[in-house]
Amino acid sequence: MPSFVANANQQTDVLPKGVKALMDNGLVTIPGRYVKPPSHRAVKHLIVPGVEIPVIDMAALESDREKFVQTLCKASSEWGIFQVINHGIPVATMQGMVHGVLELFDLPIEEKMKYYTEEVFVPVRYCTSMTPSQETHMEWHDHFQHYFSSGFHEIAWFLGYCRRLASSYVSSVRHLSQTLMSALSEGLGLDSNCLAKSFGDSEMILRSNYYPPCPNPDLALGMNGHTDSGGLTILFEDQVGGLQARKGDLWYDLKPIKNAFIVNIADQLEILSNGKYKSIEHRVLVQPDQTRLSIVAFCNPSRDAVIGPLPELIDEQNPPLYKSTLYQEHITNVYTKYLDGKHSQKLQIN
Ligand code: OGA
Ligand code: NI
Questions:
Q1: How far apart are CA 192 and CA 181, in angstroms?
Q2: Could you tell me the keywords of this UniProt record (predicted)?
Q3: How far does the centroid of ligand 1 lie from the alpha carbon of residue 296, in Å?
Q4: Can you give the pLDDT at residue 48?
């Protein structure tokens, strides 16, 4: 166990213990706090079935880099979300992580509650929904969140079984993010290290989301619609499904592809690219009879990086569409508000 324990001095009996605990106790109807107002529920006629979200084949990078860059750039501009196949990360590493993460959620509730906190900048966080004390309508998921910046590496993953695997998973995912960021830089017509340079000493957060079955799936949401506040998000999910991406007023299902990653552009890449790459809004639906698990790696800029449109992209015809902001300030703004909607729009100049 690490020396860090979030809840040493809090009265844990007054804190929400999470939706898994509710279901483990035999809940048959969701409590009022989880019932979304009609305006926030998923409406069937606004969901488009059967449209293919782009699939990026990493093997194509070797054979024709230019074409790969073009395909990636198109997916990031038109959608801001895509699935990645042939990424080279061993299936055993991914399955091992799923196994380890399930063990974390299966810990006795008293163990998990030692890490319960609404604080964002802590090395290890267990929480349910986003910031329960500020929300009128909670989300139907629990999560663990671990910071992986240099220094936190060893203490961050506190379950012995998973520690070594988590390190190798994080290095593999970091490598994948660097490869994608290089290609995304080239897609802007810039040197391949341009975006990475703007990120500075980048930070990775690993967040595991656990969505238990929900007795009233039409009334609740696993996660509200939101954009991710960081740079690039790399998500691994099981085969249950429920993640949706928004374009205009419509929501598109992401159909799980076995052992693929789902990658989405987040706010800081939209800003750096001056709006060329789109930070896509996404949400998660819940299922009546299945638990869903996702392991999400947020590849983010350093907190002291100042992020604004890259100067190389700005001229008279292309004025900056976003303000420059300290990344730390951006996340503080996001996390002190209820997560609902697209954050980068709030930074837009007009
Ligand atoms: C997130 C997120 C989606 C999922 O954690 O930001 O969008 O499928 N998760 O868990
Ligand atoms: Ni997200």
A1: 8
A2: Iron, Metal-binding, Oxidoreductase
A3: 7
A4: 86
